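Structure (tokenized):
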């Protein structure tokens, strides 16, 4: 039984998990939050560093408008209240990889507060029941990313790469409304899809564009929350679920043995599948953080609409909430509901479509070019096409079969020019021969339906004559055996026989 099922069906007096998340999302911007340095992954070390990033004396921060707009757009998508005035602060802490020795963040009043993320889980025995969940968003704050420490264990040296120092982040703080790894993973995946739809964060966790800290505790329902441990810097949704579930069970085991859960920071070891203690939050003096207002940045002001702009303010330089709201795209949850409602597909199919970048657009383009029902098209898109894409690890945008090409193949099947088994063969040939149309391949390989009725009668008679036991079974009332004979005919014709016609001929010959 998985952790979610355990928590849903366990004794109310049992210890249960409580999970809150802090997510650092790298803002999709060409330049950093307070400098003109470009943002880029895997550039040569220290090649994307301005004087300000390196904290040279006399340099001052200049706020990136794009980063502010991204935070506002994300806040609107998550139903947050956008603060018209927010503040920047210096967070003094032990930063080995920030030359200034502090991080510019928003501690007193962040740009967005009090939001909600709606997400869904697939539950039930067949994993096809949609379970709706909500997690509250406490706040979204703008802040700088730190640099990166590169450790050389052989030489016992540490090198600093400041390329990432100063890159704009949105820190999203989620309330402890989740109870297990599966819920947290579903919430983070939904957030990832939202950010990608908005274009505010590319969400590539393997490149550090989204990093998750999980605050995990256990308690008895109705009792105060327990002591929490923080599992830091998880960069995979799959590892997030595993880390949380392990940590919940670890704390339950400690308490059941009469022990005490420590307030500490832990890391997840993907090789062992365990969380490992990094530092004790209660005992270490160097863990203390000191905040002070950032003296070099004025309050951040955003405006409700153009009418609220003060005289003399250039609208091109202002951040206007209503203008950003008008640019909000269709969000993943809305898109899934629309797909189910408009095309009659199953909810789990809508999840598959939305989870894969570009697959919804591909599916809808196919539908525009074929009369085939959406429920028949969905299997081709989510099974055949997506299966081949995953096998070769390529995105939808690089599919060798275009939506019009797949639609042409499906039309040939729908109009009875080829059988379903031949359609599968042609799909494989189209994948191997990009640019070749379905009709061309059918002609080249002689895959069209056998139209000669006399030839079909001859093949059916041959199958009937060579399988007397099956014929007797059919004549004695076992009609299911007819399917075996149909399969043998299709084998003889390499899947090119019209199944309706074959069934009629076989029924006549076995009656």
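Design, position by position:
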């Amino acid at each position: 039984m998985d952790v979610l099922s355990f928590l849903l069906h366990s004794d109310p007096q049992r210890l249960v998990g409580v999970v809150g998340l802090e997510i650092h999302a790298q803002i999709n911007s060409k330049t950093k939050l307070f400098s003109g340095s470009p943002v880029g992954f895997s550039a040569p070390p220290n090649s994307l560093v301005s004087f300000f990033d390196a904290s040279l004396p006399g340099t001052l921060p200049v706020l990136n408008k794009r980063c502010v707009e991204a935070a506002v757009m994300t806040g609107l998508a998550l139903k947050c209240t956008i603060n018209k005035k927010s503040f920047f602060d210096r967070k003094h802490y032990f930063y080995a990889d920030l030359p200034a020795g502090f991080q510019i963040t928003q501690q007193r009043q962040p740009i967005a507060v009090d939001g909600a993320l709606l997400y869904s889980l697939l539950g039930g025995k067949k994993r096809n029941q949609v379970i709706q969940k909500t997690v509250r968003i406490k706040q979204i704050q703008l802040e700088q990313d730190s640099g990166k420490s590169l450790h050389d264990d052989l030489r016992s040296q540490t090198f600093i790469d400041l390329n990432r120092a100063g890159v704009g982040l949105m820190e999203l703080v989620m309330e402890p409304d989740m109870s297990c790894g599966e819920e947290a993973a579903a919430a983070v995946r939904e957030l990832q899809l939202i950010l990608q739809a908005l274009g505010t964060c590319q969400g590539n966790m393997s490149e550090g564009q989204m990093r998750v800290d999980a605050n995990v505790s256990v308690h008895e329902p109705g009792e105060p929350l327990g002591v929490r441990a923080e599992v830091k810097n998880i960069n995979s949704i799959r590892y997030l679920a595993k880390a949380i579930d392990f940590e919940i069970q670890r704390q339950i085991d400690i308490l059941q043995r009469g022990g005490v859960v420590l307030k500490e920071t832990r890391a997840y070891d993907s090789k062992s599948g365990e969380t490992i203690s990094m530092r004790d939050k209660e005992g270490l003096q160097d863990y203390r953080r000191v905040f002070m207002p950032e003296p070099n940045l004025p309050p951040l002001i955003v405006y409700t609409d153009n009418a609220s702009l003060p005289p003399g303010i250039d609208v091109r330089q202002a951040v206007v909430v209503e203008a950003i709201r008008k640019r909000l795209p269709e969000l993943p949850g809305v898109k899934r509901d629309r797909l189910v409602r408009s095309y009659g597909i199953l909810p789990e199919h809508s999840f598959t479509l939305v989870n894969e970048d570009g697959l919804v657009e591909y599916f809808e383009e196919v539908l525009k070019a074929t009369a085939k029902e959406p429920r028949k098209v969905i299997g081709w898109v989510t099974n055949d096409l997506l299966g081949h894409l995953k096998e070769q690890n390529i995105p939808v945008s690089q599919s060798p079969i275009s939506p019009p090409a797949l639609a042409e193949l499906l039309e040939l099947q729908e109009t009875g020019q080829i059988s379903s088994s031949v359609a599968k063969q042609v799909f494989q040939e189209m994948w191997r021969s990009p640019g070749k149309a379905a009709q061309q391949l059918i002609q080249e390989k002689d895959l069209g339906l056998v139209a000669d009725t006399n030839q079909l009668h001859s093949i059916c008679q041959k199958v009937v004559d060579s399988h007397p036991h099956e014929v007797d079974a059919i004549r004695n009332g076992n009609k299911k055996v007819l399917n075996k004979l149909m399969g043998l005919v299709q084998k003889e014709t390499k899947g090119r026989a019209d199944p309706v016609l074959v069934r009629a001929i076989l029924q006549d010959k076995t009656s």
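Reviewer-requested clarification: The mean pLDDT is 91. The CA atoms of residues 422 and 494 lie 8 Å apart.
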